[in-house]
């Protein structure tokens, strides 16, 4: 038998809009939409949407490598230096 700790958890991919937004379980999973609403939409008297699956998203870090981060930091440092020069110049005027 397989160890319960080694089993992968099952994520619910098909949810109505309100359950997905509130990050709650959408039951019943297999419902006859639009005639049948999910339990939460019935309880709160909302219009239930059809269960929709979310498409896979790219990683937040995709396309941002160490060099891109280094370039952004260099640009930020330059902007800060320019700002400090400007503030010193304004101080001298007053």
Automatic annotation (TrEMBL):
InterPro entries: Zn2-C6_fun-type_DNA-bd_sf, Zn2Cys6_DnaBD. It comes from the Eukaryota. The keyword Nucleus applies. Keywords: Nucleus. Transmembrane segments: none annotated. One of its GO terms (molecular function) is zinc ion binding. Residues 15-50 form the Zn(2)-C6 fungal-type domain. This is Zn(2)-C6 fungal-type domain-containing protein. The lineage of its organism: Eukaryota, Fungi, Dikarya, Ascomycota, Pezizomycotina.
């Amino acid at each position: 038998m397989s160890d319960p700790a080694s089993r992968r958890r099952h994520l619910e991919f098909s949810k109505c809009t309100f359950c997905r937004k509130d990050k709650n379980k959408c039951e019943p999973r297999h419902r006859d939409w639009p005639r049948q609403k999910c339990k939460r939409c019935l309880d709160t008297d909302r219009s239930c949407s059809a269960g929709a699956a979310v498409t896979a998203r790219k990683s937040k870090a995709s396309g941002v490598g160490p060099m891109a981060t280094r370039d952004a930091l260099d640009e930020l440092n330059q902007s800060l230096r320019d700002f400090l020069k400007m503030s010193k110049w304004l101080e001298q005027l007053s």
